[in-house]
Amino acid sequence: MNDAPRSPGSSSAALRLPRDPELGYFGPGSVTWKVMADPSAGPGGIAALFTQALHPRALAGVDQHSDFRTQFWPRLARTAEYVMTVTFSSREKVDRVAGHVRRAHEHVRGVDPVTGRTYAASEPDLLRWVHVTEVNGFLDAVQRAGAGLTDDEADRFLAEQVRAAELLGATDVPASRAEVADYFEAVRPELQASPTSRSGALRLLAPPMPTRVALTTPARPAWTALATLGFALQPRWARRMHGLPGLPTTDLAAGLVIRALRTTVLALPETWQRGPVAREALAKERAILGDAA
């Protein structure tokens, strides 16, 4: 097995890397930093988790090899930490954590009980599915929240994000909104809801929570509201495919809520808006772009 860091392939090689490796694979001025620093990206990531559950072979790996059911919060935190690391950290650190994930994927293989087909987490097509749902979720949420992205910026975000996919071994990754739409159209015959996907969706909507936290803090209703928003932010076809009665299947309310959420969070102090990794990176960005002005 080759654990050497993957270099950006032909899909992303034309995009210029920051000169300073400490600025990572994207750096100041990138659309990736703009999108991923926006507070509305988080609910988009939750939307991606719901959509990802509709791919039986991808879900089987999570269901059979992860602690998603018993360790929901640590698992969610590790996923968020990985995304923020790849987005904002140095290339050396990104290569290290991506290598760790690739090695872990080598042990995730088995048989999907829904389709009867084998799967391996390292398969490029499964990596592609997870990547595309993720970046589409982030981008769609930020656009619908009113962040002011242009069409060119939206396409550039997807082109930049090909690097993140290649680090884990994905190939033939869509690099524009048109390519993402074509990809979803092509992959939809492979998707289906199942008892496992519905169980996963319900766990995401109502994860286990310590009794004291659930009874003495607003954590339970706050998470339920955030997860419901994530469900509503999925593509319409995905929401309907889940077949979960009582959950939103229309777009208007989701758009209004994500806009209101973004406005509210942006009115808070910066330490409440973003995590420390993003705050440190954006401080560097302000200094660099300020010096260049």
Descriptive notes:
The protein is an all-alpha fold and 293 residues long. The protein has one domain. It contains 15 helices and 2 strands. Strands 1-2 form a two-stranded antiparallel ribbon. It starts with 30 loop residues before the first helix and ends with a helix. The N terminus is likely disordered.
Order of helices and strands: HHHHHEEHHHHHHHHHH
Question: How would you sum up the major sheet?
Answer: 2 strands, antiparallel
Distance between the amino and carboxyl termini:
47 Å
Identify the overall geometry: globular
Main attributes?
293 residues, mainly alpha, disordered N terminus, 15 helices, MPAB/Lcp_cat_dom, 2% strand, EC 1.-.-.-, oxidoreductase activity
Can you lay out the helices and strands and say which pair or pack?
Blueprint: H1 31-36, H2 41-52, H3 56-65, H4 72-88, H5 91-105, E1 109-111, E2 118-120, H6 124-144, H7 151-168, H8 177-187, H9 195-205, H10 211-216, H11 219-232, H12 236-242, H13 252-266, H14 270-273, H15 276-292
Antiparallel strand pairs: 1-2
Helix pairs in contact: 2-6, 2-11, 4-5, 6-7
